[in-house]
Description:
Layout: E1 6-7, E2 18-20, H1 24-29, E3 35-37, E4 58-61, H2 66-77, E5 82-85, H3 88-94
Parallel strand pairs: 1-5, 2-3, 2-4, 4-5
Amino acid sequence: MSEIPQIASTDVPDHAVILDVREQDEWDAGHAPGAVHIPLGELPTRLHELPDTDSGTLAVTCRGGGRSSRAVAWLSQQGFDVANLDGGMKGWHAAGKPVVSASGQPQVI
């Protein structure tokens, strides 16, 4: 298996477009402000919803990095310019990056 491209939370602007592949309840609890939500299991049928990567690499996240690593491997095979957000949303939150939620009060990621 080839190396999965990684990107650090500190290298991603706070309001960058990020692909979040977590489940709905995880998304509702808290996500990056500029994130697009497509659960991992729905990714193959929702490729048309992916943000345009012509302007640069698209960061992909989940809770800790496992699911997003699988998404990055698959999306790379499909020709997308993607990288795994190192540490997932736990790393994003730990880096002091902004988190928004459905309730307006982000829960523990």
